Amino acid sequence: MPPLVPGFTITSALSSDAKGSTWAAMRTLDDKPLVLKVIPVSDVTEARAKAVQLMAVLDGIENEHLVGQHGAIALADGELALVLDRVTGGSLARLLGERGNLSPGETVTTLAPLFGALAALHASGVEHGDLAPRSILFSADGRPLIGDVGVARLMGHAGGQVDRDESLMAPEVAAGAVPSAASDVYSMAAIGWLCLTGAPPDPASTIRCSTTVSPRIPALLTDVLNSCLTANPTARPSARAAAIEVFDAVQAESVVLTSVADPATEITRRIRATAAAVSVPAPPSAGKHLRGSLVIGAIALLVMMAIGGGTMWFVSRSPEPARPAAARSLAQVRPSPAATATSSTTSGLATADLVPATPTSGSLTDVVTARESPRIAAAGLLQSLVDARALAYAARNPALLDLVYAPGATRADADRSNLGTALERGATYLELRFVVKDAVYLDGTSDTARVRATIVTPAYETGQPDGRRVVHPQETVGPSIFTLSLTRDGWRILALALP
Fold first, then answer.
1. Has residue 286 been placed in a domain?
2. By residue range, what is the domain housing residue 244?
């Protein structure tokens, strides 16, 4: 239920968690759009006095990477409403939830100014104490900002307990020490590690070098993060020094705030920490041929969806001439057991465009619907499923994900959200494809199977809503274990996990 805050009209709910609730609101005095952060406190009168003192300090800090605070209002039910600037670009938590991780250049663009903002806070005697992806916000033009300054102190004041994210917490704070400037530096570096890899740093590891993450992440960047993540607080650099070192480590690049940046991450985000770039040989004409196949396939699929038969080309046993051009390019030789276990062999759309195809009487639908496919044609089956996923992105059609995922597959929801956002914002995927390598059948039953495989995403581009084209480098993710389920329409992906 919306709070009753004098002088404000609540327009919508933004978020709610153990630390309180956040609401979009209009100030009745001048109709200015603002945000109200409503937090529970042990003594609302004393907490408001401390909030006012804090805001007086923040007003003296000139830094454009801090969310502006405009007041604190004591509410009748023992809560405090902080009046904040409205920031419309979303949180880092949401961005990572959509994309899995950021590129090294995007991470630098995010971290360097935030370390600088931390330095300004520390110089004024203020520690954040509760840095997390949810407290990092972006303006509409991609400028990162630190939010929730002082919230942890207000909630924890007078002996109150604050529930913090322990995976991003400095070890001394986890052991009961009071948050400090050094612990803020640790938490910001842990957020940087999360941005790069999709996972928080492992507290059991004291030394992490770039080769344990991915060769695509420059060593200079991991080196500065490692120095901030040392267990000894006195050995960590200051926030100001970290800001300079992070900025010098990698060429900065604009943060892509839409969810169309990297669709591969949602199906593989739990194993992105092992991602590494590899070479996939392709003839010069491969890209052109693939683009043509995807465009033709996407048009055909959209037309078929419009007449009510959008999935039939994939799951029915219609004659060869009735399938769209993209489907015909998928219908290659049905892999033998030997080919399935060969690391250099792939099949399906990506392979057809990487090596010369040999037309046969084999059928894509045979691979997808045959009960024995995971055992005798694991590579071909999994390739067919990820090809359908690539085609869903090319067509920007969430309905086509029914050709990829089994009912109940949680990762399907993330893909549907990505595609819905892309369609709404006019973003496009150019030459996106996934290549299955080293597919091996592990075990299964009559209607389930587990297949271990590595997924290669060759370089591709996304057309952004503002007309830019963002290049995404080739990436390899895995090996991972795919759990497949035999539905009434054929095999589909149910889950994904580390081996």
1. yes
2. 92-249
User: What's the total number of domains in the chain?
Assistant: 3
Same domain? 96 vs 61: no
Q: Which amino acid is at 152?
A: A
10-residue block means of pLDDT along the chain (499 residues)? Answer: 88 84 91 91 86 87 90 85 91 89 92 95 92 92 90 60 69 92 96 92 56 69 94 96 93 75 41 32 34 34 30 24 28 30 31 28 61 87 88 84 89 84 79 88 90 89 77 82 90 83
Determine the pLDDT at residue 302. 34
In this structure, the answer to whether residues 32 and 166 fall within a common structural domain is: no
In this structure, what CATH number is given to the domain that contains residue 193?
A: 1.10.510.10
- End residue of a domain, out of 36, 52, 85: 85
Q: What are the structure tokens assigned to 346, written together?
A: 């792939």
Q: Residue 391 contacts by C-beta under 8 Å, 6 or more apart in sequence?
A: 294, 297, 298, 301, 326, 349, 400
- Cβ within 8 Å of residue 207, ≥6 positions away: 226
Among the candidates 85, 107, 128, a domain finishes at: 85
Instruction: Give the residue from 274, 273, 263, 311 showing the smallest Cα distance to 411.
Output: 263
pTM: 0.54
Please tell me the predicted confidence (pLDDT) of residue 207. 45
Q: Is residue 254 situated within a structural domain? A: no
Q: Is residue 2 part of a domain?
A: no
Residue 258 within any structural domain of the chain: no
Burial label, 171 (beta-carbon count in 10 A; 0-12, 13-18, 19+): middle
Instruction: Please indicate, yes or no, whether residues 109 and 239 belong to a single structural domain of this protein.
Output: yes
Same domain (yes/no): 100, 81: no
Judge if 110 and 63 occupy the same domain: no
* Same domain? 412 vs 338: yes
**194 with 163, same domain?**
yes
In degrees to the nearest 10, what's the CA dihedral of 105, 435, 390, 492? -120
